[in-house]
Structures are given as structure tokens and as C-alpha cells.
């Protein structure tokens, strides 16, 4: 049966009313709008049936003016697009556009982003024009939303076209965000050198670039291995009075680590320190992950210790990555120590990583340590308790 051909029976409506409008079937206390949204989000995360996903959204009357509703809409669109229900997405968004409370620029802009999330950028462009003719999407903010939709969809050529044509066609003046979105498209598509001409246009239009502008450009030139241009960009930053601080270094370090050039990234760390620029936890996270991926676990451990000694706090992903890669490298004792520290902070790596650690400890005759680890996991985190019971039996 077609997704939108169902007739909503009184029974269906009653079920949805009970779920979202009351605390329980026997209660007369109405749920607040926030409670409805949370209930909808909770159900959307576990729901797979496309019809049910849409009914949940309709019953909750989601609106992009609410943060939690934006999350719920994003989850719904993601699930529908993963199932290739593109016509259903379009029909649903058209339904929302017909709601009187959503006849505004806020929804118009957000709907464009949802189309981008579904990788339906052509439809977003058409809808932008439709909105414009109805008196919406006539601001720079709406144009920026369309550009963001293109970036999310990774349709960089279309983003470039929109940037080049739409400001003049729709008589919308670009702002800094407009330029930064366009620059990201050029850099992500391997055309970083084209940004020089954009910088000239920005100067003519009285729009001053910021750290984000140059950070994106630096990352682009690193990926394209145009290191001479990296130096040019750093000089441009000085010309514009934009300090080369920790965030700029983090972008450079992250990009080098992604390119598996972590030793070069570490050289930048030393450069920071020599200039009196203090690295932060993000700096170390990038370096640690980079060295882990390259198999240099000793360097990763050294950086992890340096990070902690500097009083910087590793985040959960840093702990998880360390445990994962140390297990991969067979350093189970180091992995166990870091895992224990992580669990003290109530952060537990995913089940497959923990299972690898337990099996690794057993392989080096650390059976008691493996049992103790399982005991602590079951005590603090009840999820997967049955699976841990099975593994524990195998250790007896």
C-alpha cells in the first residue's frame, strides 16, 4: 500500500492521541509540548516502519522553532532517506508547508536543510524558488540555508552554481556566512585556489573574512598538498589582523593527521609551544587519533600521558580510541588501565571493543583481570548483561 494512501481510521487516531496527549490512557493530564516532542523523538529512534515514522511526526506536530523538534525531524528524515523513501519525504515536507503555523521563514529555511539531509538538493532548489515567489526565502539567511543544504548533500558543484547565480537572480546580498559556505564547497571539491578570487570579491563587497574562512582554506590546501599556499594563507591572516591561535593550529594538525602525516602534525605542536600558544585537548585528541591510525601506539601513549600531565581532560572518544587501537596492537595491559580510567568517568567503550579487551587479557593469562573487568561492566552498565554472562561462563 502506498505510503500516503492510508485512511486514518478512528482507531489509529485514538492510539496516537493516547500516546502523545496524555501521560497514560487513564490520565486526564495533558502532556506538555516538550513532553510530546521527547516522546516522539524516543519512538523515532527505534521505529523502522516509514508509515509509523510519519504518523509519529504528524501526531507530535513538530516545529523547527524547537531544538528537540529539529532533532526529531532530522532523525525522521534520515531514516526515510536511508530507506529511499524520497517521495514520502517530499510529500511530508509539503504537508508541513501547508500548516498555518509553519507559514514563515524559519520553517522555509529549515525545510531546505532537511531536503539537503535527504540528498534531494534539486528539490530544495525548486522549493526555494517556490518559497521566494510566495514572499518567503528573500533573506540572506534563507540563501545560506540552501547553501548549507548543498554542503550536507555534498553536492559541491551545485553549491558553487547557487553561490555564483542566486544572489544576483534573487537580489540577495551575500554575507560572511554565505562566502564561508561557498569557500567550503570549493575547498572540499579540490578547488581551493579559486578561493583567492572570492577573497577579492569579499573585499570589494566590504565583507571581512574571519578565522573560519582561512581555517577552511588552510585545510583545503593541505589536502591538495599545496604547502606553498598554506604559507600564503598564514600571511593573509596577518594582513587581515586575524591571529593564528590554537584553533588555526588544530585545523592544520587535524588535516595532517587525516592525511596520515602525524609526525608533521607533531612538529606543528612543537611550533605552537615555542610561540607560547598552549595546545588544548582538541589538539591532543587529533594527534593521538592520528598516531593510533598509523599504528604508532607508543607515540599515542606518550601524547596521552603528556595531555593528562598538562591538566587537559581527554574526552570519551579519546579514551575509546585508545582502548580500541591498543587492543588492536596487542597492548592489553595499557588498554585495561585506560579503560578503567574511562569507566571511572562513566564512559564505557562499545561492546566489541570491550570483548576484544577481555579476550586479549585472557590470551596473556590475565584471566582474573578479565573477570574483574566484566564484573565492573555489569555492575555499572546493565546493557548487554546477558552477553557478558555468556562470555563470563566461558572463562570458568
From TrEMBL:
PPR repeats: 175-209, 245-279, 280-314, 315-349
InterPro entries tied to this protein: PPR-containing_protein, PPR_rpt, TPR-like_helical_dom_sf
Domain of life, source organism: Eukaryota
PROSITE patterns in the cross-refs: PPR
Pfam (any one): PPR
Keywords attached to this entry: Repeat, Transit peptide
Family affiliation: Belongs to the PPR family. P subfamily.
Protein name: Pentatricopeptide repeat-containing protein
Natural source organism: Gossypium davidsonii (Davidson's cotton)
